[in-house]
């Protein structure tokens, strides 16, 4: 059962004015493509992903890749116009443009490598410089200990919101690239607690439920998008440039069609059409988490070779005879929206053997 007809985006990318517009558009394009690929197969589930977490993990993998593996990652990330170092630098600007004083937004990356593997110095340096990632040797043969250590690190970096991302690790794992992102902020204009009440919510054209619904009658950025057959509002957070968009289909059963129409949308152009308007808002309180292996969806987006024995990550390991391929890309995300604000977290991990 899909509880929310509003498509929710935390529009990190188009708000990052320090990053070139074409880079932001490329990142948004990958994000919408991945979201659509997942949502089309999860039509009865609430889907939440963190493009920042996923693309950071893939960007780090790309920096360590070569040959066909690197080309597929570069093409699928829509980064053909950038060099390897250029992509790394753009991620650095992107990640650091989000972090503002008085805003809880933390992004962390880590590399766990098998004891006997020597990480290529250039890769280690780039990981630290551009991706804020450090490296640690880990004995993957002690599976319970390795799983516990990685899960504890991810839980710590997400303020305890993302737990038990891993239930197991393949016995022949050589390296794990993991990252975490945590965000918490208050609305610039909070909803009043006493205005929240149970209201009818349409799951589809005919089925309804009653859910706790926040209410406000205030001024917001508002727009109607005929090409999306939808309307939208923008909610501001305190002390940050980050904002949240709520996009509502005009048709009660129009969520799937809206998700498909978002492919390739230029969010900068949509942003230009905001009008400061008096709007009555009925917004359900909601909170959920989503956990999936991204491998089947990345395969559909053309990232294939890194999952095969032909994978080439020769830029990661120094003079290593071991060939590595990615076994899975685990992603777990959480979101909670209430009267005070929004709390969200996500964790991703790529596991190579």
UniProtKB/TrEMBL annotation:
Query: Sorted alphabetically, which Pfam families does this protein's record hold?
Result: Serpin
SUPFAM superfamilies xref list: Serpins (SSF56574)
**Does the record bear Signal in its keywords?**
yes
What InterPro entries has UniProt attached to this entry? Answer: Serpin_dom, Serpin_fam, Serpin_sf, Serpin_sf_1, Serpin_sf_2
Q: Which Gene3D superfamilies match?
A: Alpha-1-antitrypsin, domain 1, Antithrombin, subunit I, domain 2
Give all residue intervals belonging to the Serpin domain.
Answer: 32-349
Instruction: Using the record, list the residue span of the signal peptide; answer none if the entry has no such feature.
Output: 1-21
In the UniProt record, which is one GO cellular component term? extracellular space
Q: Which UniProt keywords apply?
A: Protease inhibitor, Serine protease inhibitor, Signal
GO MF terms held by the record = serine-type endopeptidase inhibitor activity
State the family named in the UniProt similarity comment for this chain: Belongs to the serpin family.
Name of the protein in its database record: Serpin A3-8
